[in-house]
Design goal:
single chain; mainly alpha; 7 helices; rod-shaped
Length: 173
């Protein structure tokens, strides 16, 4: 080992844990080695902390992604059931799906408060009071016209749509 002469001030010696400047070279060398080992251990610990922080942030992102996926799946299920029960039009379903993408509980409250569509023709008796049936059909036509649902009825039940138009306009087309 090569011997080096080094001037070390008292404050540095005290921070190394050496009480006086007359300490032996081996004590100073050991103190310096100890300080180097502590610095290396601090670097290792910092690297582990950095890795753990990255893993934590990734886990948070994964959890957020999972929460979003669960919310989307719930919203899809609620919308599908509402469409099946004829509580919503396709247009309303798309809007609610967008507005409540992260709030399936709020969407469920809204959808559960709605009643399904029941065509009035199911309550009409053929040959019964024609004037009352016609008035009911005209009323239904007007309601569906105002809500924008006529096209949906035309696609879903063309015969019923024809009956509504005939009652409203007196035409057989």
């Amino acid at each position: 080992m090569k011997k080096i002469t080094l001037a070390i001030d008292e404050n540095l010696l005290q921070s190394l844990g050496i009480a006086n400047a007359a300490a032996e070279d081996t004590a100073i060398a050991q103190a310096i080695k100890g300080a180097i080992l502590k610095a290396q251990k601090a670097d290792e610990l910092q690297n582990k902390l950095d890795a753990a922080t990255i893993a934590l942030n990734q886990a948070k992102q994964d959890l957020d992604g999972l929460k979003n996926k669960v919310a989307q799946d719930k919203v899809e299920a609620i919308i599908s059931k509402a469409l099946e029960d004829k509580k919503l039009t396709a247009e309303a379903a798309n809007q609610l799906k967008s507005d409540y993408a992260q709030n399936p509980e709020g969407l469920a409250k809204i959808v559960n408060s709605l009643s399904g569509y029941t065509p009035i023709t199911t309550t009409l008796t053929p040959g019964a009071d024609v004037a009352a049936n016609k008035a009911a059909l005209i009323k239904e036509y007007d309601e569906k016209f105002m809500s924008g649902e006529l096209e949906e009825i035309q696609n879903a039940n063309p015969e019923h749509f024809k009956a509504l138009r005939e009652a409203k306009f007196g035409k057989k087309n």
